[in-house]
């Protein structure tokens, strides 16, 4: 049998170069991260009027702030005069304007150019046209999503569509009221692996029995290797002796008020391409945002979200955080173990997918279509 003929139970993966080639990574930034909706920052972390965050989206630095009306606004973090970076810090706040430290052009919170040395002597300068370059913004699930495309894709069809497709309907995610939850814990992981290895890993559970003993104890059906994401609407059920989604299966905290009976004692996972993983359990929500920085490096920011009173009362979240923190470390270790292999001649033509991973081929098809532009 030649390498090109595969037995029926196997499908081919992407070739290794997709995970190492800087040119492919640049194409992904251009055609994926700078074209699609990107979950940039938790809305509460942007803060009130005048507070800001800077976030890397594709190859750009994006400035996210709130205007006088409290609405989220986003701009490219670049001065329109001679291109200096406007805000050098990751976080901060201004009173009324963003003032460039080079020649002091100043922009209001809606991006309009409002002051510059000698501006009155240049009445022909249109202050909106020479204002900051706007970036499209949406707030959903309590996060600020941005899109660098001139004409963004439909938020409903792409971001919300991913939840619908996976859970059967949008109400299934909206019942968790994620916008009203509070971050109980945030951990940032600096992963030495391509972002696609992280997505592929998240989408399959063939590895669960090998590397996730704690998770498999809580969700025994994961031992079978079929990810919850394999079936529409399916959530993996807690084991009979398990009280909560915690590292030792002990009881969690107060359940989220609005969830359905069939969402109790179950774990649901959604992949929102290209960079968000949503994990839903009865008493908390875990949301991962990936920031791909290079072909072989991805920062993952993971939020554990609980009912506000649970966080305010200082309830012990350690066992609930520890479960997915361990899962994350186990997963990212595996991804980092694969990354060097992507450059090996042994992987030049790629690897193979077994039947419980066949749905990953859909992700690969999607990626190829996006890159073909
Ligand atoms: S580069 Fe910003 S004011 Fe000149
Ligand atoms: Fe995993």
TrEMBL record:
GO terms for molecular function: 2 iron, 2 sulfur cluster binding; iron ion binding; monooxygenase activity; oxidoreductase activity, acting on paired donors, with incorporation or reduction of molecular oxygen. The keyword Ribosomal protein does not apply. Gene3D superfamilies: Naphthalene 1,2-dioxygenase Alpha Subunit, Chain A, domain 1, Rieske [2Fe-2S] iron-sulphur domain. InterPro entries: Rieske_2Fe-2S (IPR017941), Rieske_2Fe-2S_sf (IPR036922), Ring_hydroxy_dOase_asu_C_dom (IPR015879), Rng_hydr_dOase-A (IPR001663). SUPFAM superfamilies: Bet v1-like, ISP domain. The keyword Protein biosynthesis does not apply. It comes from the Bacteria. Keywords: 2Fe-2S, Iron, Iron-sulfur, Metal-binding, Oxidoreductase. Residues 39-146 form the Rieske domain. Its cofactor is Fe cation. This is (2Fe-2S) ferredoxin. It comes from Actinoplanes nipponensis. The lineage of its organism: Bacteria, Bacillati, Actinomycetota, Actinomycetes, Micromonosporales.
């Amino acid at each position: 049998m030649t390498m090109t003929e595969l037995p029926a139970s196997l499908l081919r993966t992407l070739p290794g170069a997709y995970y190492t080639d800087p040119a492919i990574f640049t194409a992904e930034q251009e055609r994926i991260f700078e074209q699609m909706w990107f979950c940039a920052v938790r809305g509460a972390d942007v803060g009130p009027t005048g507070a800001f965050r800077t976030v890397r989206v594709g190859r750009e630095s994006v400035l996210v702030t709130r205007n006088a009306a409290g609405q989220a606004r986003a701009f490219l973090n670049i001065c329109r005069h001679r291109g200096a970076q406007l805000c050098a810090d990751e976080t901060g706040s201004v009173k009324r304007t963003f003032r460039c430290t080079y020649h002091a052009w100043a922009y209001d919170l809606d991006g309009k150019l409002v002051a510059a040395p000698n501006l009155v002597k240049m009445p022909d300068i249109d202050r909106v046209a020479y204002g900051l370059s706007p970036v499209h913004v949406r707030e959903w699930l309590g996060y600020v999503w941005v899109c660098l495309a001139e004409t963004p894709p439909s938020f409903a069809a792409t971001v919300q569509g991913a939840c619908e497709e996976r859970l059967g309907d949008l109400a299934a995610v909206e019942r968790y009221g994620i916008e009203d939850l509070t971050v109980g814990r945030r951990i940032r992981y600096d992963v030495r692996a391509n972002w696609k290895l992280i997505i592929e890993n998240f989408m399959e559970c063939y590895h669960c029995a090998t590397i996730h003993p704690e998770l498999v104890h809580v969700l025994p059906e994961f031992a079978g290797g079929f990810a919850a994401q394999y079936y529409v609407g399916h959530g993996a059920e807690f084991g009979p002796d398990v009280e909560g989604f915690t590292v030792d299966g002990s009881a969690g905290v107060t359940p989220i008020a609005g969830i359905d009976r069939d969402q109790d004692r179950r774990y649901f996972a959604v992949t929102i391409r290209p960079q968000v993983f949503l994990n839903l359990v009865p008493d908390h929500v875990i949301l991962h945002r990936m920031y791909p920085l290079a072909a072989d490096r991805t920062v993952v920011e993971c939020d554990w979200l609980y009912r506000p009173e649970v966080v305010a009362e200082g309830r012990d979240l350690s066992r609930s955080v520890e479960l997915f923190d361990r899962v994350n470390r186990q997963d990212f270790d595996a991804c980092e173990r694969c990354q060097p292999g992507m450059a090996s001649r042994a992987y030049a033509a790629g690897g193979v997918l077994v039947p419980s991973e066949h749905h990953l081929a859909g992700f690969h098809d999607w990626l190829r279509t996006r890159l073909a532009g």
